[in-house]
From TrEMBL:
Protein name as catalogued: PACRL protein
Stretches for region Disordered: 1-38
Stretches with biased composition (Polar residues): 1-32
PANTHER family associated with the record: PACRG-LIKE PROTEIN, PARKIN COREGULATED GENE PROTEIN PARK2 COREGULATED
Encoding gene, per UniProt annotation: Pacrgl
InterPro entries named in the record: ARM-like, ARM-type_fold, Parkin_co-regulated_protein
TM spans (from-to): none
Length: 205
């Protein structure tokens, strides 16, 4: 009886290697020249590869209801449904988390998506209840070492202030240390000064 067994197990092994072979030979897995630019082909087991951020993972899952449309002159966002029909919780917070991204298209989608959500009619009443969760996320962008991330965080903060006005005032003290730190940096001095003036303007006395 052991002979039959050996044969059948031999057959199993054979079919296994055959399927593996067909996998590796399929044209899809042959690296195309353009694949070098495709992040998917980067070896996930490399020591320095980082797990995808929450924003990237949500975007990949289709959890962010807008996509980047490449224009010849400038990119724009395409929403799957009108922004005013989308619940701000958790999308606005997810987009704010995306401000810390450093890769395209996440950088554009998060920045533009955040801005466009805040332009929705009645945005203020949708945003104000989220401030306690939103402000720490913006703080993380403002505390980020990457200048571009800081810049996006600063723009988002000014947009937020324009939307909610004085409601932001109680939360600003959380953010001021990060702003004042960059105020010492001459690259950002002017930008931060303008932002602080706007915050003052929108926040009232």
């Amino acid at each position: 009886g052991s002979n039959v067994l050996r044969m059948s197990s031999g057959i199993q092994i054979k079919t296994k290697t055959a399927t593996q072979k067909s996998k590796t030979c399929s044209p899809a897995s042959q690296p195309k020249p353009s694949d070098k630019l495709n992040p998917k082909t980067i070896d996930p087991f490399r020591a320095y590869s980082q797990p995808p951020s929450a924003f990237a993972a949500t975007y990949a899952r289709g959890g962010i209801p807008c996509r980047l449309v490449h224009g010849s002159v400038k990119h724009k966002l395409q929403w799957e449904c009108p922004p005013n029909t989308i619940p701000f919780d958790p999308l606005l917070i997810t987009l704010a988390e995306g401000l810390r991204e450093t890769k395209h298209p996440y950088t554009f989608v998060s920045k533009e998506g955040f801005k466009e959500l805040l332009l929705v009619k009645d945005a203020a009443e949708k945003v104000i209840p989220l401030l306690p969760r939103l402000v720490p996320v913006l703080k993380a962008a403002l505390a980020h070492a990457d200048d571009e991330v800081f810049g996006r965080g600063l723009d988002a903060l000014v947009q937020l202030s324009a939307t909610v006005g004085p409601s932001l005032n109680d939360h600003l003290k959380l953010l001021l240390t990060n702003l004042l730190k960059r105020l010492m940096d001459k690259t950002y001095r002017e930008k931060v000064t303008v932002a602080l003036q706007k915050l003052e303007q929108y926040g009232g006395k």
